Amino acid sequence: MNMTPTGVMVPAGDYPVVHENESINRAADILVSSFRNKDGTWRGYESLLVKNDYNEIVGLFTLRSLLKALGLNDQDSINSLTGLFLIKSKNVSLQVRNFMRSLDNRIINIADDLNQVVDVIINNQVNSVVVVDCDKIVGVIRAIDLLWFVDEMI
C-alpha cells in the first residue's frame, strides 16, 4: 500500500462538524441526520469533528462518546434507555466538549502512506484518524475507508 491518505480520506469540508459547546442532543441529531439517506437506508459517519470558538478542530465526537454521555457504559445504570429518554425530554445540556475524544494518537500527515494509517488505527484502537497538511486538518480516514481501498486492490 504505497498510496497516500488523499486517495481514501473524506475531505474535512465534507465531514459533519459540531461545536464543543453544543449539547449532546444536538450532536446526536447531527449524527443521526448524517446516517440516514432520504430513502431510509443507513450510510454516513460514526463521528463528528469538534470545533472550538476559534473554528479550530479540537476533537472527535464519536458514537462511543454519545453512548458514554448517555451512561450506556455504566454498569450501575438502572436503565440506559431511561437515561436517553430523560436527556431528550428534559433537554439536559451535557456538552460535547465533556465527551469528545482527543486528537492525540489520531493524527496522520498527508504525506504518510496508508501503512502508517493502518498502524495508527490498530495500535491506538481507534476507528478514525485525522489527516493534516501543514498543521491544518484536511481530512478524516475511517477504518471503513480502508476497507473500500483494500477491496479495490483485491
UniProtKB/TrEMBL annotation:
Keyword line: CBS domain
Xref: Pfam families: CBS
Gene3D superfamilies per the UniProt record, alphabetical: CBS-domain
Coiled coil regions in record: none
Taxonomy, superkingdom: Bacteria
Keyword Endoplasmic reticulum among UniProt keywords: no
The keyword Chloroplast is assigned to this record: no
Record-linked SUPFAM superfamilies: CBS-domain pair
Domain spans labelled CBS: 9-77
Name of this protein: CBS domain-containing protein
Organism of this sequence: Desulfotruncus arcticus DSM 17038
